[in-house]
Each structure stands twice: as structure tokens, then as C-alpha cells.
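Review form for a predicted model. The reviewer records the input and the model, then writes brief findings.
Reviewer: anonymous (R2)
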Amino acid sequence: MTDRSEIQARLSRVWGEPVTVTVPSTMPGGASRQTMRFTAETGGGTRDLVLRRDPSGPDGVVAMENEARAMVAAAAAGVPVPEVVDSGPSLGGHPYIVMSHIVGETIPRRLLRDEEYAAVRSALAVEFGGIAARIHSIPVADLGSLPRQDPIDALRALSDRYDTPRPAVELGIRWLRDHPRAEAPDAVVHGDLRNGNAIVGPEGIRAVLDWELVHRGDPIEDLGWLCVKAWRFGAALPVGGFGTRAQLLDGYERVAGWRPSDEQLHWWEVYGTLRWVLICRQQAAVYLEGRRNSLEHAVIGRRVCEAEFDLLLALGLTRPGAVRDPLATADTVAAEAAGTAATGRAPHDAPDADRLLAVVADSLQKDLGESLPAGSPRFMARVAANAIRIARREILLGAELEDRHRRRLGRLGFASDADLASAIRSGAAEPAEVAWAVAETVHDKLLVANPSYLGHPDSPKGE
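Model under review:
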């Protein structure tokens, strides 16, 4: 933790007068940056500020410098951002940014459902489009040597680092290569512009946050990322759950003076969805590689199939369709049996192991989860309940789905997913010939991990 005296000394030099600060308190969110809030007091009054630091230390100096420069340049271009008060290579041993604290809402589910934001919701897609255009108007030369990488090479590197061979990923990469995108001008790209990374008030967007992935590239990348299904949080509209693609492009055209094509936007939406598959795998690796014994990261590993399903939807290789949770049938049968035979599995007494897991999951979800205050404890109780239900479904369906998967691969002449993925990657297997098997596999994985996701709404490409 950064010492208060160090923050006070630094801000006193910046403002040229004595400064007193409160103890910084950690803010929720911010998976890759430490984010803390504190109040600074001077002779002229008080200011609420936010401190962001990169915990990787010296390795994050360049990234934090890019982030700070981008925010300053964005403000000059008319993008709503927090004011950068100070930044540098070391505060408490870590590169940092101190910025103004902006009051407003960032939680997407509240933005999509609370009555307070009902009036502004329909305008957010247009507003995001205009903000994206202003970001892309920033002169690239003003930000020095921003990183730039071929987008498909970046996906391949991420896949090879954090994933085992995965057929759905290979289908996505193959599609991107087989559908070359139209070239667009080199621009400053935010890299994570989406619902959840903006502070919103009843009147609109007050600030764009999280500039840590800023880079040079195709500006339409930001627009495609805004359309990724993960950022709809269960709502149907394709841009953040609150707007249409046409509205997004309308807002962009009004500011930029040109309109990206539907084909360009779709390419980058597929790209962004595939990128999200790999980011989920990257997050799961935190647990799988033993870097953190994290329940949340462990469960993410089992929910990568949600992003795979979204990818197949974007590619037109599957469709949503509601299914009944296998546990609903199993629990009904168990409840009926309990009324006539109060015995467990010999020599144990009732209830059996599955019923114990069921009542623990229900208690975590309802009794504990609903009684806890909003925030991390309630969230983690729900994650734990979800993990138990995933395990129960696997116990219930595991043998059947394993046999089905083996026979499915056998029809194609492959012994494993790795073999199928390698064949797609090398060109030995044509996507049109194997897509059905990949879609059925993802369906079966979701049947265990989150069957309700199979019925999530999707929006047509042109909406």
C-alpha cells in the first residue's frame, strides 16, 4: 500500500501548496490495475481523487505512461475523461496515475434496468459512437510509440499462450483469415471501449475509463468491441444491451464524417468475440497455473463455453434455443423419491451426496447470498453456488456427454478436440464440414456450465 505521506508530498509538489490526504480505499473492479479512492485537502478546499497503479512495477511503466498520455490527449479531443492530476514511474514502487473522481454509474445491469437511466439508455449507442470517433481523431503522433500488432497474429499469440487447441477458436481465426477486412486509416484505438468502462449519469456518459489497452490500429476495432455479446449482460440490443448497430454507426458518422460499412463492423465484432473467448481462458489460467487459488477464476474456466457460443452465433453457425436445466428434472425426481424412501446410498443415511450439494448451493444462493450486503461477499456466494451446480450437472450428465463427444469426433475421424483443432488450423478440415460438431460440443458444454445461456437472445447482424 502506498504511504499517505508519499501521496501528500507528491501532490504538494504538483499543486505548489501543502496537501493532506485520507487513507486510500480500494475500489471494486480493476482486474489488472490497483484502483484506490482518496480525498485531498488544500487551503482551497477538498477534491475526491482516484489512484491507479500497475502492480507489475517497472514492467508497467510504459503502459501507464501511454494510458496517462492518452487520457490527456482524449480530453483535448473532446472525449469525456477524468482529469489527470499527476502520473509517473513510481509511487510506492509502482507506476501510477492520479485522476479526478467522477460520480456516476458504471455497473451495466443497473444502467440497463434502473428507472433512473431509462431516459438516457436509448441515446447511449449514438453517444458511444460519437465518443469513439473523437478518440480516433487524436493524432497518432501525439502519443509517441503506441504498440501496434496485426490483429490475427495477436489472437494467435494469445491462443498459443493461454489455451489448449480449441476447435471453436480455430474456426474463428479461419473465418477472419478467409474474410479479409477493408483497410481503414491508422488511428488511436481505446482497446476496451464498452458498457462497464464508462461512467454514466442520467444525462449521458460522464467519463470513459480504463485506457490501459490503448494502441494504434483500425478504429473500427473499438466499434466491434462495443457489439460483443458479453457486454449486453443478458439484454437483446447488440450495442451494450442498450442500442442498435445502426445507432452506433450514426453517432460515429456524425462526428467522424464517414461511416464504416456493416461488413467492417461485423468483422471486428467476430474478432472481438473471439478475443473475449481467449481473455476468458487467460483469466482461467490464473487458477489453472496455480498463480491464485481463486474460486472466481476457476469458475470462469468452465464458462469459456459461453463466449464460444457467442462466437458461433456471430459466425452464423448456431442459434439460441431454450433448454430445461437438467438439475430441474433431477431435483424433481429426488424430491418425489424423498417422500417415499428416506434412505441414502448404503451404508450412509439420507440425504445423499447430490442432495447435500443441492442444499448447499441453494443456501449460498438464497439464504446467504440474499442476506449479505451488495458487493463482493454476496457475489462470491453466488459464484460458489454456481460452481456447485456445474459440478452436479457434470456428475449427472458426464458419462453420457463424454460418450456422445467421443462418437461425434469418431464420425469425423478424430480422436480428440486437439486433433480436430489442428486439422482446422492446417486446412486439413474444412469449416463447413466440421462446424456442426463444434456447435454440438459447445452446446453440450453449456448444458453443464450454464444451460440458461443457450436461450439468451441474439440480434441479427444488420440490426
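Findings: The CA atoms of residues 19 and 42 lie 5 Å apart.
Further findings: The first helix runs from residue 4 to 15.
Recommendation: see findings above.
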